[in-house]
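Issue 218. Parser rejects a valid record. Input:
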Amino acid sequence: MSVIPDSPDARIRRPQVPAADQTLRILQHLARRPAPIAATALARELAIPRSTIYHLLATLEQHGFVVHLPQERRWGLGTSAFELAGGYARQEPLARLGRPILAALADRVGESAHLAVMSGRDVLYIVEERAARRPALVTDVGVRLPAHLTATGRAMLAALPAAQVRALYPDAAAFTDRTGRGPVRPSELREVLRQVRQAGVATEDGEVTPGFRSVAAAVHDHADWPIAAVAVTWEDRQEAPEAAEVLHAAGTLQTRLGYDRR
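Output the parser choked on:
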């Protein structure tokens, strides 16, 4: 069917604000890639003039939506992009689908379970299911905690490209402390994340709250990007739950979201 150039259909199909259209295409393209990309490659793949790409990337960087990795001459998503992802995750379908899965997990292991998403260098908790006769935790819905100290944060950070982790944690100033435990510099974080990838799950022992431990597993989307993490927390005087239960819950949520990678 042909479209008359000045018809309403043509106006809908043709971008009314080219710069906005190009900006959104840049963000979508970066989100789909497994690692940061050079500006020249971005211009070529999106068929956008190089001069325009550089101007748009500079503006996006000012607002935190992209980060520039000067040593690699590449660009990746910034913390503001994570904020948008977290805003979506706080709504449907992640929290809605995750809640019954976490409730079942808490019933099976007899410990409290929670679901978190990345928000900059923090994790943001969007679901908590407290097990019967278990103490209240700091991981209530809406609470933010430093990602490098939490099991949920480590599970997601371990699944991110190394360049993205470097952008989030460029030096020691990026690290905060709660209990005097946990990584305090990039090299220590890299070792923690190496252990997470080797084990298949992330753990923390008293780094968030003394006397409590956690184990977590990441939930991935269709591009293998960690969109959330499922965790269980218990008092260290209690028997540790099976990590396989947490992995199973994360896999179930991943499948319910339509991201089954089997």
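Fixed in the parser; the record now loads. The two ends are 40 Å apart (CA to CA).
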